[in-house]
């Protein structure tokens, strides 16, 4: 028989299905730390299993999947706006995303199974704050921001400042992520996303890399590199970017820049890979992503 000593009983759960943003914000304000927001809910059960001993005795689950004003993909002037409960499959197929942020559509197409993509939302993928979140590296190289709402205020947070650690974001207990904003790049650069896992599908990445490269007259005028699963949060490799910008595009320059990436990452060892292997793959995949972005 399994030993269940030390496990707390399943908490009392009250389920609320909000139909308006104001209703959801009011519930968060009332219940604060004992409240959990869901939309697709694909991470809820795994998270509950992992953190069962940390769950409160009384939980309030607020389902925001029926709030119509949070499901959209719009090209609005010089930016793309994506509602927080927009499904990953919608992002994968969107002509707006494919035409203006193809790297995000490519990353979405590699997330989990079709069933997960049909249920999972972009807001949920970001708020879950997994170091392996597939939408994070593409959004980081696109300089995305997230709009956050509470009853009393609204704020805009650069995605690079949104993640605080595994499962932790800058959201307070009374706030909801309502929108992702992607500034349009003019002229556009070439981008590439690589996800490497133990198998080709239905898996968390061992390492993921997103790159965006702009070259003029044989010189890197802009390069952005973001990685997942190599640090407590998805990261931008800012030192490597600084090393490459302004230099001629050649094999030696790229190799020197990618070596900087290998020193910026802070991987851990777990059941999927060792820290050393992740560091090596960060080097290999970043070099490959840059090379493919140059084609």
What report would you give on this structure?
The chain has 295 residues and is of the alpha+beta class. The protein folds into 3 domains: 12-63, Uridine Diphospho-n-acetylenolpyruvylglucosamine Reductase, domain 2, CATH 3.30.43; 68-183, Uridine Diphospho-n-acetylenolpyruvylglucosamine Reductase, domain 3; 190-293, Enolase-like, domain 1. Helix content is 34%, strand content 26%. The chain has 12 helices and 14 strands. The protein has helices at residues 21-31, 44-50, 88-93, 95-100, 102-109, 114-119, 122-127, 136-141, 159-162, 238-244, 251-264, 275-293, and strands at residues 12-17, 35-38, 58-63, 73-76, 79-83, 145-149, 154-158, 163-165, 168-169, 176-183, 190-196, 207-216, 219-228, 235-236. The strands form 4 sheets. A 5-stranded antiparallel beta sheet has the order 4-5-10-6-7. A hairpin with a 2-residue loop joins β12 (207-216) and β13 (219-228). α10 (238-244) packs antiparallel against α11 (251-264) and α11 (251-264) runs antiparallel to α12. The termini are far apart. Mean pLDDT is 90; it is low at 1-5.
């Amino acid at each position: 028989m399994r030993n269940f000593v030390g496990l707390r009983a399943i908490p009392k759960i009250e389920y609320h299905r909000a139909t308006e943003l104001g209703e959801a914000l009011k519930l968060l304000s009332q219940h604060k730390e004992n409240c959990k927001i869901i939309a697709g809910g694909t991470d809820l059960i795994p998270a509950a299993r992992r953190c069962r001993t940390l769950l409160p005795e009384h939980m309030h689950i607020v389902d925001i999947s029926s709030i119509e004003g949070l499901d959209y993909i719009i090209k609005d002037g010089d930016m793309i706006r994506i509602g927080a409960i927009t499904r990953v499959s919608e992002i994968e197929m969107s002509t707006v995303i494919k035409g203006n942020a193809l790297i995000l559509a490519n990353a979405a197409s590699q997330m989990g199974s079709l069933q997960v993509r049909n249920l999972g939302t972009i807001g949920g993928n970001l708020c879950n704050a997994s170091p392996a979140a597939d939408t994070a590296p593409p959004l980081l190289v696109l300089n995305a921001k997230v709009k956050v709402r509470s009853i009393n205020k609204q704020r805009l947070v650069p995605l690079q400042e949104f993640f605080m650690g595994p499962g932790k974001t800058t959201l307070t207990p009374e706030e909801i992520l309502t929108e992702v904003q992607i500034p349009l790049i003019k002229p556009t650069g070439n981008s590439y996303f690589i996800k490497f896992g133990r198998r080709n599908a239905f898996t968390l990445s061992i390492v993921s890399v997103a790159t965006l490269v702009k070259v003029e007259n044989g010189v890197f005028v802009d390069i952005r590199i973001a990685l997942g699963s190599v640090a407590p949060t998805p990261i931008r490799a800012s030192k490597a970017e600084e090393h490459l910008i302004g230099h001629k595009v050649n094999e030696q320059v790229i190799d020197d820049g990618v070596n900087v990436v290998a020193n910026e990452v802070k991987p851990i060892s777990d059941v999927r890979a060792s820290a050393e292997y992740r560091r090596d793959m960060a080097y290999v995949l970043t070099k490959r992503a840059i090379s493919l972005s140059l084609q």
